[in-house]
Fold each of these.
Amino acid sequence: MRIAMIGGGYVGLVSGACFAEFGIEVALVETDAGRLAALREGRIPIYEPGLDRLVAENVAAGRLTFGDNLQAAVAGAEAVFIAVGTPTRRGDGHADLSYVYAAAEQVAKVMTDYAVIVTKSTVPVGTGRRIAEIVSQVRPDLEFDVASNPEFLREGSAIGDFMRPDRVVIGVESERAREVLRRLYRPLYLIEAPIVFTELETAELIKYAANAFLAMKITFINEVADLCEKVGADVHDVARGIGLDGRIGRKFLHAGPGFGGSCFPKDTLAMVRIAQDAGAPSRLIETVVSVNDARKASMAARIIAACGGHVRGLTIGILGLTFKPETDDMREAPSIPIVWRLTEAGAKLRVYDPEGMAQARDLLPESVEYCTDATDVTTGADALAVVTEWNEFRSLPPAKLRAAMRGRVVVDLRNIFDPAAMRQAGFDYHAIGRGAALSAAAPRTA
């Protein structure tokens, strides 16, 4: 088979490389000159474990090509995937579909034979219908189908998610289009991955509903963590106790500074607007958006309180900047409001992230000092805050940290350290929702 993938961003590049790994000929279209040049030179413009190898192997095999000629890419393609950005629209919170609709119009102009136009981008309910209208208006003579095939790729594990998915969702209406996409995903059918065929609107809504539910789980456990701190419970044990219930599940029950990234903030806000426009407001998701925004904004106050109520003149080390480990994505990262607030309060910030510092430079204050590694961050620091739970931070010996730091305050916003070990090393250790663990680790007096 041959397909065209419009958009060489995160979704388009990962999906295109994985389809090529299936043995499919993939022509990826990228109009950004800098990104296209990087791809042609073998440089991957995003960080995703294993993606550089996957791209290189399939380029070498001739199955994956990069270009900016849409007509050449679409020629002979049985499916044309639209994988362009749908950022939050300024002013109203809706998803900005201008790139999607522009791509659909351009595809219609160059298509010559039947193909399935597939939205891979996250789009609101009704987008597929509107794409069909656009294509029909531009080319009334054209034979085509529209399908929705939302992605469920987690940054940091996207290749595994594509190759061994929990499910593949395909919204399609004609048997001809269904057959094209069934053949496209045949390798996953052979390993018995669930492939769910639905109507267009259902597939579009599944993506938003899934992300909104996961965001709600994160927000829920964060509020439980706050309660744990008040009543002396341990959120780790609470999460395990409820997560072992099969109806709830253990994933996404990790307390922290709030969710960020390219999907959850954007998609929860878009779902709120979709529900409001449909006359079925989602009060739960409205609350999730509000609570999460407030939580990210409040994290700096936790650090300031741990430092005695003021940080002016103090040097504070920040471990981790990206919104999650195993990515270089800084979009909506909790580190951004934390660093800005601490800087405004008069602190000197020293930061380190294994992959995100290049992206962070345009988002953080100019006064921030970027360090070479975790040890460099801690040297001479009056306080240390863990913001992203990269694995290399988990293995830092408490005694080594204590020897490097000038102060003894550690604010662990990801709960990666053992409270007892940190207290034993002499730290004034603060975690999220670990009231019982911190009490047990505290020295007892008669």
Amino acid sequence: MNLPNRRALLAALAALAAVPVARAQPWPGRPLRLIVPYPTGGVSDLVARAIGERLSSQLGQPVVVENRAGASGTLGMDALAKAAPDGYTLAFSAVSPLTLSPAIGKVPYDVDRDFTPVVSVMMSPVLVLATTASAARDFRDLLGRAKDAPDSVRWATSGQGSLGHVLLEQLQEAAKVRMVHIPYKGGGQQINDALGGQFEILSVNAGPVISEHIRSGRLRALAVGAPKRLPSMPQVPTLAELGYPRANLSSHFGVFAPGNLPLRILDRLNGEINRALEEPEVRNRLLASENVPTGGPARDFARQIAAEADSTSRIVKAVGMKGE
């Protein structure tokens, strides 16, 4: 090697030595964003904020909750799918945008590729309620009236393709009855119209506001979609008890991250959220809203989602259900 070339090589090596070695940055080093794909004020929003508060305290960084409601949760989950997989953008959502929405129509993301399930947070029962417009004494009486007079019962849900809609379709097929589906765009207006007696029946996730309307007598609980009766409503049977096990559906919620989240961040997030779920403040807030805390390893949550996707797909095909 001649002298000029040797000098050039030594200069290049010196320049490389001067470059600092890249190291993995400590996580978290800045605020986190927690997307909630539902409107403000609902149970999912309240739970997300409770979890966000605990995470902020545990991680030493602010957790900013961002509501992105619409299209049965798929708008918010699409925003998550497009975010960087660095642990700074998360979502608190029902699993239905990953299990139900793809089964009834096109979604703007790839369920298998674009998401990392972090941890299961809660199981939310689905209540079947009668408004003041309904004269049904109980659930069996409701089905009897629907059978005697097809399309005389109006059943409201939070949206076309929602879990409440699946429950209704399953029930109609199993009981051989025909009711009128009234889909809303979210739960707020649905509840307002229910209190005004604009329809006879609604299916809705349990929550403190709903419980208050039941206690006041403005709404009557006829059945619940849950593994067992709710302690606060021991007189209300599950749909499985009533003879409709396939309609005995409940919502499952958890925290998600974009696909390809680094394992070290996934493990840290899973551990921190499981820790938050053990805090009395968070746990009591969930139980007070009729929701059951869950938690557990990320792999168990992923398996649960896969199983629910298979089950939901079979239901949707069986009843010929379509999205909006």
